[in-house]
Structures are given as structure tokens and as C-alpha cells.
Amino acid sequence: MKSLTLYLFIIYFLSCTVPKATTHKTQSKHSVEKTEQEIKIFFDSYAEDLRENRRESIANLYDTAGYYRMGNGNKSFISFEESKKRYLTNWTAPKSFEWKDISVEIVSPTAAVVTALFDWQASTGEKSTFSYTGLLVKKLDKWRIRVEDESLNPAGYSIKPISGNRFVPGPYKYLLTAQPGASIAAHLHSTAMHIKVVRGRKYIIMGNLDSSKVQRYDAGSSFVIPAQSWHLEWWEEETVEDIEIMAPFKTQRATPSTPRKSE
């Protein structure tokens, strides 16, 4: 719902600010490719500024008319002066930063929507994965951020489909990337899940959760979670898993009314 609200907000904003004659359809292929390249250079520079603690450069990435900051159920309008003051005085640079899976949608020669993920490691060493949605506008030949949504993944893990569709009958394969400290409470799936640990280490308890022992799977190991088997899992270091399951499938979460025991 939050993503839909942001999307509708962006469409409304564009309808008010983008000239009708300069839509994506009227642009030549060369023009679109040129604009996409400019956006990619913008985000490469953005990442480098974050890593190098270039406070003033980061502040100047935003629209001089101010921008809308959104994320995790919040929305506020920040003036350019407020934004610059924050970056120059109260902002703390990350220990590491990396964009992932950037997608660019050119709306017009002077407007683009960007969606992505990014990994942020705080100065204290804690790692987090965020989703990102931004609206960029071009003024005086310079791209600037007009809307920015940065939302933390509270689960501590992200999923990237590889093949198939979880809602269409057939094999569905995806990569799961878990951050240190992430966990999933007791649950079960309606079909069997085949897992290979590509990198890192996974801990899991399966079956009767009152008596089962912890199992550890290191990188390179494979195992199966049987259908209808209760299990809980966690990760103590960044871990990547290759997972395959027959779709469609259902997941049931444990609650006080469920027995938490495999039949």
C-alpha cells in the first residue's frame, strides 16, 4: 500500500509539472539512452559522495526548490536550506554503501523515476538493506532529487526472483540475501523447499520445535525443508541462499493458536 501511495504521488506530481508534449513516447531512442546514461552517472556519483563523506556535494544533489522525503510510513517536505544544514552538521557518513538493482524509467527529457535497493553499513558496523524510489528533475542541465523514499527492510533479508513465478504453477527459483542478525519466526510452507547456501551460514530448527536441535548449514551445503514442516531460521553473518520451490505455495505463520508441530 505504501509503494502504491508513493507511485500515485509521483504520477500526480508529474502530471502537474511535466509538459504534455514531452512524454517518454515522443523521445527518440538515442535521447532516452542518453538520459538513462546521465541518470546512471548521477547515481554513481551519489554513491561515491556518500562513501567519501562529501557533505556539500550530497546536499547539492537535491532540488533547490526543496524535496519530499518519504519512507517507512512517513512524508515530509524539506527545503533546500534545511537539507543542506542537515548534511553539513548532523549527518553521519556510512562505513560502506552500494547501490543494487537500479532501474530507470524515463518520463520525459526532464523527469525520471528511479527504483533500486542499497546496502548501507553504519559507522558502528551494522548493515541494513533499503528499498529506494526517487523522482529526479532536470533544471538548468543539472539533475536533482525532487522526491526520495528510503525504506528499511525490517525483516533483514531480501528476495530476488531468478525464474518462474510464485503465483503461477511450476518451479519458482529465487535468491535470498540475509543480513547479520536477521531471523524468521516459526512458519511452514505448503510445498517442499530446496535450499543451497551459496555464501555465508544458515541456522535452522525444523520439525517439532520443542525438541528439535539447531542445524547449521555452511556455504556449499544443500538441504530440503519438507512440506508442512514447522521451522524457524536465522543468520549471524551475511548469507546468500539459492532456493527452489513448486508454485503456487502458501506460508503459515505460527500464532498462539497453532500447535507448532509437524503432522
Topology pattern, helix = H, strand = E: HHHEEHEEEEEEEEEEEEEE
Structural class: alpha+beta
How many β-strands, per DSSP?
16
End-to-end Cα distance, whole Å, is 36 Å
Q: Whole-number radius of gyration?
A: 22 Å
Oligomer: single chain
Low-confidence stretches: 20-24
Account of the 3D structure:
The chain is an alpha+beta fold and 263 residues long. Helix content is 21%, strand content 45%. The chain is built from four helices and 16 strands. The chain has helices at 2-17, 29-51, 55-59, 80-90; strands spanning 67-71, 74-78, 96-108, 111-121, 127-139, 142-152, 157-163, 170-178, 183-189, 193-199, 201-206, 215-218, 222-225, 231-234, 239-247, 251-253. The protein has a six-stranded mixed sheet. It starts with a helix and ends in a 10-residue tail after the last strand.
Question: What's a concise summary of this model?
Answer:
This protein is α+β, with helices and mostly antiparallel strands. It is built from 4 helices and 16 strands.
